[in-house]
Every structure is written in structure tokens, then in C-alpha cells.
Design goal:
alpha+beta; 21% helix; 204 residues; Jelly Rolls
Amino acid sequence: MKPTFLRIMVVLSLTGLAGCSGTSNPEKWSATETDKWFEKNEWLNGWTVKPDPSVDRKALAVSYFRNMERWNSAFIFLKENDLSALELKRYDIDGDNLYVAVSEYLTKNPEEANFEAHRRYIDIQYVVSGKELIGITPISMKYEIIEPFDAERDIEFFTVTSENNLRASPERFFIFFPEDAHRPGLKDGENSMVKKIVVKVRVD
């Protein structure tokens, strides 16, 4: 049974999506309206870790509106679980539509890592313990293909013409859209162990 119009409006109101310029379509929101929605933090569903300033607020609002159930489920998982105690494995929340990959690794030297990007999934990346640097740049900065796009793994590797390295630690999380090239797992100072959670949100 499809949700009623009233139920849809209640959900939109609870998540801060209704009432912006009289429309619930974030694609039509101004930057001020997008910031207002983003900074209310209701979309985090009570998870208290802060988003990194690099997160594309407009892209998040548009994707959240299109797949509200997936995004809510993702952040509820992050809020309700003891992330430090999770086993190193995949956790299915909604099959291939939404799942969580937990890994642990030694951070790399920059020359050992390439930039990557995805087409079918959005990444929520969170360092549970340890610290690392993540290289970030628009996909338009792609320069030389190292490994062509692999549809089965949803990944390609390449070099870029410019980048910005940001520190990832338990105080903040990152979101990477298909337009965001990223190079995670870089050492911040010395090579060290990191435990990371990556939530994969399928793009429709």
C-alpha cells in the first residue's frame, strides 16, 4: 500500500524537508534554505558525530529526499550500534541498496594510493579509531586512468591534477558522491592502524 499524502507530509516535516519556499524539492532550494535544512541536523537521526565541512550540502539534500528511507536507516545504524565493537565484515541493512563495510588497515604512504570514484554508490566514511588523511577533489580533476571503471566492484582508479588532503578522525565523518574523487587511507604523520566504517548508499 502506498503511503497517504498526509503521511508523506508528516515525514517531510519531521525531517525538515517541508516548508522551504513552499516546496519539498531540494533541487529548487536556495543556498540559504539548503544550509538551514543541513544545519538542523535532523537528517542525522540523533547521531552526534559532525559532518566534515567538505560534504556537498545540496547533493546530500537532493539524495536524501530521493532515498529518505535509506539515509535514515544508515544514520540510525551508526547511532544505535557500538561502532568500535563491530566485527570486520559486511553488514546488510537493505541488501545491495544499503550496506556497511567495516575494515581495519595500516595507513599508506601517498605514493602507494590512487584516487578512486564510484558511480552506483555514495560513501559515508567514518574513522572509528585512529586517524588518516583523505585526498579529495572533484571528479573533473581526473588526469590519468590507472584502472578503468569496474562495474562489478563499482570503482575506478586514477591520478588527479590537484587535490586537498583532509584529516579524518572519530570527531567527523565524510560523504563522497559520484562527483567526488577521493583517496582515503593516507598516513597522517606516521603510518598507523585505522578502523573504518564505510556505509554504501546506492544511487537510484
